[in-house]
Design a protein that fits this description.
The chain has five helices and ten strands, in the order H-H-E-E-E-E-H-H-E-H-E-E-E-E-E. By secondary structure, the protein is an alpha+beta fold.
């Protein structure tokens, strides 16, 4: 098989970018994410009335606990394009007001390239298509956009267990990190589905056929993520972890875990932690729950999305 030049450079390029600033078959889809029923505004709601983690905006949530017994809720899937489109339809405070680090933010719209020479953070026009791919994970949004969506949804960007920002040094402690606790099934597994890497479990480049270099000016990606929750094996093995999908592969996920890096080219900047690998990743290290990648909070890319959490205790 001929080597795809885009893929051979994709992971080193993406990791450099991040550090510096598919499908599935019918049987797999049959046992996929929990069904969500839309309310009159088109938001997702759980079917169980009175459930602790009920939410009328964004994905359905599930309750999980840390090893030391702290309870919280986490979205069962990444935020979808449909969810994010609903967010864009609502009036909001001025973009940039969502967090003290976000004064640079001027829009919540996904940052899409209009040509191969235009800025867009690797976001091709064909990646944001909420009308035709409503259940694809939203991407091409920066950290501040993700933070604002979770606020609007009555949740928060997943961070420290018990509330607040997660210190970067505690990102692999299941008693401290909401995201890592959910991914590692309470600190017991290396990947969201178990301890051994399974290239067929989640949406990733390992399974994507050689499809050539993307046509940037036409805005057509070589490959895209699958619908959220459509990879039946990409979840935990036991309840409640089995109700949380796509913590490995699909898109990397912004988390509320940021630090200032003073000694960078062009001056210091804030970078925030991304978790879980993405649909262009073909290295098992980056599917792991301990994935160490960070990115400048202003970065957007077609491989970066997010999900939200909600505190209970």
């Amino acid at each position: 098989m001929s080597q795809n030049p885009f893929r051979s450079r994709a992971i080193p390029f993406l990791l450099a970018l991040l550090a510096s600033c598919s499908g599935t078959n019918a049987e797999e889809k049959a046992d996929a994410a929990p069904e969500a029923s839309p309310d009159t505004d088109g938001h997702s709601t759980t079917d169980a009335p009175g459930a602790t983690c009920d939410s009328d905006r964004g994905p359905v949530m599930v309750e999980v606990s840390t090893p030391n017994g702290q309870r919280y809720c986490i979205d069962t899937t990444e935020v979808t394009q449909s969810d994010y489109q609903q967010f864009l339809l609502y009036s909001h405070d001025k973009p940039g007001s969502e967090h003290e680090l976000c004064d640079f933010n001027t829009s919540y719209e996904p940052n899409i390239m209009v040509s191969s020479t235009a800025p867009g953070g690797g976001c091709l026009k064909g990646i944001w298509t909420p009308t035709t791919t409503p259940q694809h994970p939203v991407s091409c949004v920066d950290w501040c956009d993700a933070y604002a969506f979770c606020q609007w949804a009555g949740k928060r960007l997943c961070g420290k267990v018990g509330g607040g920002e997660e210190p970067t040094e505690s990102g692999n402690d299941p008693n401290a990190s909401q995201w890592h606790n959910a991914c590692s099934q309470g600190g017991t597994t290396t990947y969201s589905y178990g301890n051994e890497f399974d290239p067929a479990a989640c949406s990733g480049a390992v399974l994507v056929p050689d499809s050539g270099t993307p046509d940037y000016d036409a805005g057509v990606p070589s490959w895209t993520p699958s619908d959220v929750g459509s990879w039946a094996g990409c979840r935990g093995s036991e309840t409640p972890w089995s109700g949380v999908f796509d913590l490995s592969g699909s898109v990397r996920e912004w988390t509320d875990s940021c630090a200032y890096y003073p000694n960078q080219v062009g001056g210091g900047h804030w970078s925030c932690r991304l978790r879980g690998g993405d649909f262009m990743t073909d290295n098992s290290e980056y599917y792991a729950c301990a994935d160490p990648v960070t990115s400048g909070l202003e970065v957007t890319h077609m491989t970066i999305g997010f999900r939200c959490c909600k505190d209970l205790d």
